[in-house]
């Protein structure tokens, strides 16, 4: 269903120019390549005694201070616009590496020495698919994202939340969590992913952000993996409802809502996306102009996705698209057209 190994797509000069215009590209003091030259590692075991698939990496003593100082400056650029005044009371507690998945990320734990409050951020290889996924998430979803690029390095903030595959056991023991609100958010998340063509949203690739409100808890599902942004050819990959890992959420929707209610929530989400498209029309146009020139997938996958979406929407324009950029452009234009006429 999903390619065993997605090809790595470097950032093209046109995308690099876009990133500079919108303040994403900066010269950073530490690169992904530098972090690769660690000398040793130990398995990171969590508080429950389970192997996390992450390894805590170690560097030579004569390099560690420079690496830690550089990472603190990267964090200041990511979170505080480069203001280094707060760096004196921050320290790097741990650098972890994960060989699982496409991006092979480094995870940095940074701690405030005044109060022991900590945060994480990630340093990865800058893959164009992932960068486009982050940018589209920032523009079109309810969630703003902070990330930076520097040549082949990508820096991302940590997205806090409860992983979707861990959420259900928690929900079952929390009677104050309203299942209808959870099901509603899954419908809307499913619609967001399909419209913007973000694939592989299995339960471990999204998190629940929970906000206590004055009379109930509100739920928002946030994607945390953007590697499969408009790369695959099968349209079902862009619908979280079709992954077996998400079947409990699908069952919840089927049990609680009829088709008319589902359509209502889908239309609500399309209207919100249309509003963001209109508000960010200049930025969206700039991104679109870059996207349509990019070679982001294989001709076979582009052909398959175009024709499957053509059949799904009964819209022949999809079948004529010759790039993933043109396909996502048509998908977003349909949102504007269909919501404008409602």
Characterise this structure:
With 342 residues, the chain is α+β, with helices and mostly antiparallel strands. The protein folds into 2 domains: 13-157, no CATH class; 162-340. 43% of the residues lie in helices and 18% in strands. It has 11 helices and 10 strands. The chain has helices at residues 13-21, 32-35, 61-80, 128-140, 164-172, 179-196, 247-256, 259-279, 281-291, 299-313, 324-340; strands at 40-45, 51-58, 90-98, 106-112, 118-125, 147-150, 153-157, 162-163, 206-212, 217-223. Strands 1-2-3-4-5-7-6 form a 7-stranded antiparallel sheet. A 3-stranded antiparallel sheet has the order 8-9-10. Strand 4 and strand 5 form a beta hairpin. Helix 6 (179-196) crosses helix 7 (247-256) and helix 8 (259-279) crosses helix 11 (324-340). The protein is globular and about 65 Å long. The model has no long low-confidence stretch (mean pLDDT 93).
Q: What is the count of β-strands?
A: 10
Structural class: alpha+beta
Spans of at least 5 consecutive residues whose pLDDT stays below 50 are none
Taken in chain order, the helices and strands follow as: HHEEHEEEHEEEHHEEHHHHH
Average predicted confidence as pLDDT: 93
Helical segment count:
11
Major beta sheet summary: 7 strands, antiparallel
Q: What would you call the shape?
A: globular
> Span from first to last CA?
35 Å
Strand order of the largest sheet: 1-2-3-4-5-7-6
Helical fraction equals 40-55%
User: What's the Cα radius of gyration?
Assistant: 21 Å
Total individual domains: 2
How much strand content do the residues show?
15-25%
């Amino acid at each position: 269903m999903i390619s065993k190994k997605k090809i790595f797509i470097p950032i093209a000069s046109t995308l690099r120019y876009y990133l500079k215009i919108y303040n994403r590209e900066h010269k950073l003091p530490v690169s992904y390549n530098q972090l690769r030259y660690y000398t040793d590692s130990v398995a990171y075991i969590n508080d429950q005694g389970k192997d996390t698939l992450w390894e805590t990496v170690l560097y030579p003593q004569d390099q560690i201070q420079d690496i830690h100082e550089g990472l603190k400056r990267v964090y200041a650029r990511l979170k505080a616009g480069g203001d280094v005044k707060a760096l004196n009371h921050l320290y790097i507690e741990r650098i972890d590496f994960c060989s699982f998945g496409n991006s092979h990320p480094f995870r940095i734990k940074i701690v405030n020495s005044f109060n022991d409050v900590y945060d994480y951020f990630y340093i990865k290889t800058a893959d164009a698919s992932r960068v486009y996924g982050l940018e589209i998430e920032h523009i079109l979803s309810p969630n703003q994202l902070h990330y930076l690029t520097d040549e082949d390095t990508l820096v991302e903030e940590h997205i806090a939340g409860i992983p979707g595959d861990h959420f259900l056991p928690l929900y079952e023991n929390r009677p104050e969590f309203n299942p209808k609100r959870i099901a509603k958010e899954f419908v809307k998340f499913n619609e967001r992913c399909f419209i913007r063509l973000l694939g592989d949203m299995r339960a471990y690739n999204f998190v629940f952000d929970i906000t206590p409100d004055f009379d109930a808890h509100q739920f928002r599902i946030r994607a945390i993996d953007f590697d499969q942004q408009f790369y695959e050819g099968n349209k079902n990959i862009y619908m979280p409802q079709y992954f077996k890992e998400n079947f409990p959420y699908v069952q919840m929707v089927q049990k609680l809502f009829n088709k008319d209610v589902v359509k209502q929530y889908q239309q609500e989400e399309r209207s919100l996306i249309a509003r963001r498209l209109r508000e960010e029309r200049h930025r969206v146009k700039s991104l679109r102009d870059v996207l349509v020139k990019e070679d982001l997938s294989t001709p076979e996958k582009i052909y398959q996705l175009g024709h499957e979406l053509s059949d799904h929407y009964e819209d022949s324009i999809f079948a004529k698209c010759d790039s993933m950029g043109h396909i996502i452009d048509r998908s977003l234009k349909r949102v504007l057209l269909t919501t404008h006429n409602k």
